[in-house]
Amino acid sequence: MSSQFDESPDHSGRWAKGAVIGLSAGLVLALAGDGYLLKRTNDTNQQIAQMQTDTQGQITKLGDATTELLQQRLKALDDEMTAAMKGASTTTTAALRRTQADALKQSQELSKQIQEQQQQVASQIGDLKEATTSVDSKVSAVSSDVGNVKTDVTAVKADIASTQSNLEKTTADLKRMNGDMGVMSGLIATNGKDLAALRELGERNYFEFDLSKKQAEKRIGNVTLKLKNADLKRNRYTMEVLADDKRVEKKDKTINEPVQIYVSGYRQPYEIVVNQVKKDSVVGYLSTPKVTLARQ
Question: How many angstroms separate the CA atoms of 285 and 273, rounded?
């Protein structure tokens, strides 16, 4: 018995034929697919090429536009710079002209000031010359006067020397004696000439007086004197002295006798000297020290 898998020759031939047909159909389909893929690939390549062409064209256009825009911008900038340089040049020229004008004006003003100062200096020089001439004239006059003064000074010196000599001679004749209080007095003047010599010495103050009994009292210097008695025959007198609110009687005094009294504020005593006794009056002077005591 034959197997169910056994095939007959007819059946094998159909199967082979069918297989060939199937393979042929597959091959055709494969070739068709390849053709389709090839066509698609060609189309795609063409599209890519077209896109590249378009893109390159756009890039070229964009580059041209950018270049043109840059050129326009550069031209605008160049125009602006040119205008700015022209403006700056104009401004600089104007500023330079103003500076030159100002400098010229200042130079003219300075020149004017210098001329005015020169005129002032010339005027001052003229005044100085006049003043110098005047001074020279005055100096000449003064020189002449100085010569005269020198002559006068020489004469005055001679007079002073003579006066000094006379004063020394006169003071040599003056006497010193003890006063009524036992204190050695200063130099005593017995007449007007002696008193003048004492004043020239300048050691004490001198106040002359002529005192009469008819007077109640008399202020001499800073003391008060009152004559109580005058004895012409004996050349004696009695006097009352008021000093520092104290009244002291100087009784029976002689002419040219220093009658002394102490006054507060002075180390040396006051001295009263009567040079002449008349009837009911006396003539003399009061001598007071110049140096006072220092306050304690």
Answer: 6
Q: How many domains does the chain have?
A: 1
The DSSP secondary-structure symbol of 294 reads P
Per residue in 239-272, pLDDT (tens digit) is: 999 999 999 999 999 999 999 999 999 999 999 9
- C-alpha–C-alpha distance, residues 189 and 180, integer Å: 16
Domain membership flag for residue 205: yes
Contacts of 73 (CB under 8 A, 6+ apart): none
Query: Is 237 within 8 Å of 251 (Cβ atoms)?
Result: no
Task: Return the C-alpha torsion angle 108, 113, 114, 119, nearest 10.
Answer: 130
Per residue, the 3-state secondary structure of 141-201, as one string, reads: HHHHHHHHHHHHHHHHHHHHHHHHHHHHHHHHHCECCECCCCCECCCECCCHHHHHHHHHH
**202: domain CATH number?**
2.60.98
User: Cα dihedral sign for 164, 168, 170, 171?
Assistant: positive
Per the structure, the complete domain to which residue 258 belongs is given by 176-289
Considering the domain boundaries, does residue 22 fall inside one? Answer: no
